[in-house]
Design a protein that fits this description.
This is BTB domain-containing protein. The protein is mainly alpha-helical. The protein has helices at residues 36-42, 69-77, 92-104, 108-121, 126-135, 139-146, 154-162, 166-172, 181-189, 194-212, 222-230, 240-247, 256-272, 281-285, and strands at residues 3-4, 11-12, 22-25, 31-34, 61-64, 287-288, 291-292. Among the domains are: 3-104, Potassium Channel Kv1.1, Chain A; 196-272, no CATH class. Helix content is 48%, strand content 7%. It binds zinc ion.
Length: 302
């Protein structure tokens, strides 16, 4: 970000007014001139607890924040009476940092546009979006982001979600991973887990393909090729149409109609699979007053 002022005290070009009554200092040292009243109206926790809206001292107070200047610049733009900035050309990491800051300071006007942006870019960054949605207990966004994570490795999902909550991992993974007392207790409670439902559908699809199309009277190898393509690829359940186009080269009058019917059945089964949050109802229920509860203040107990 460009700045004005001396090198010792860089000031944001966008937030450099002289009638300000507070200065926000980013983690990278950038200073932002702003207004206490706007912070009071749009956020919680940015001003020190018990802070009066009007400050009597002549020199505006400087508040140091943990967020970068890029995040604060975006965050403050949402706190002004003006057209809200578009996030279209903002990198995903910046949007994620903005969303985290919005949750932290409860800037509700920012949470919604961040989530709209995340929905639009899916299936990109699905694991990060699932982790964000899980952390802040946004069930709808988690449900959308969870679907493409079926393509991710178990290791990647566990590493991503376990930093937030073991409960979320249990909602995603099959037994017996990871192990531990807490896991075993929780696993008993979450009897049906997200990945298992996908795995069941996958196994069923493979078996019905093998049973129904073991031999083609026309001598084609479409079913066999399809079966090989599916082998071990749980993520194949996503994008079935594309797989069909690439695998079924020749239109066989003996098995093509049946294979299309099989594909439609599988796609319907996948569509009906229970959403991710239904396996973690307790976790996602712990949002009150527009915020996710912290660890240890759960309102629902097992
Ligand atoms: Zn055939």
């Amino acid at each position: 970000m460009s700045s004005t002022g001396s090198s010792k005290k860089p000031i944001s070009e966008r937030f450099c007014t002289s009638d300000h009554d507070v200065v926000l200092k980013a983690s990278d040292g950038m200073h932002f001139h702003f207004y206490r009243k706007n912070l009071k109206v749009h956020s919680e926790g940015m001003l020190p607890t018990g802070d009066a809206t009007e400050q009597s001292t002549a020199e505006p107070e400087t508040i140091s924040l943990e967020e970068s200047s890029e995040t604060i610049d975006l965050l403050l733009q949402f706190m002004l009476r003006q057209n809200q900035p578009t996030l279209q050309n903002v990198s995903f990491s910046a949007v994620l940092a903005l969303a985290e800051a919005a949750e932290k300071y409860r800037v509700y006007s920012v949470v919604a546009p961040c989530q709209v942006h995340m929905r639009e870019i899916l299936p990109q960054n699905s694991l990060e979006i699932l982790a964000y949605a899980g952390k802040h207990r946004h069930a709808e966004l988690a449900d959308l982001a969870a679907v493409p994570t079926i393509k991710s490795s178990l290791k990647a999902v566990v590493e991503s979600l376990s930093t937030i909550s073991l409960d979320l991992v249990v909602s995603w993974v099959p037994v017996p991973y990871p192990r531990g007392k807490h896991f075993l207790i929780t696993a008993c409670l979450f009897k049906i887990r997200y990945r298992e439902t996908w795995n069941d559908a996958f196994i069923h699809a493979q078996e019905s393909l093998r049973m129904r199309f073991s031999q083609c009277y026309g001598g084609c190898r479409s079913a066999g090729t399809l079966s090989l393509h599916f082998k071990g690829q749980l993520g194949s359940l996503l994008g079935m149409d594309d797989i069909f186009v690439s695998v079924i080269q020749n239109d066989c009058r003996y098995c093509s109609p049946g294979l299309v019917a099989w594909k439609n059945e599988v796609m319907m089964t996948v569509k009906k699979l229970a959403a991710f949050s239904t396996h973690s109802k307790t976790w996602f229920a712990n949002r009150i007053d527009g915020r996710a509860l912290e660890d240890g203040e759960s309102k629902i107990y097992y």
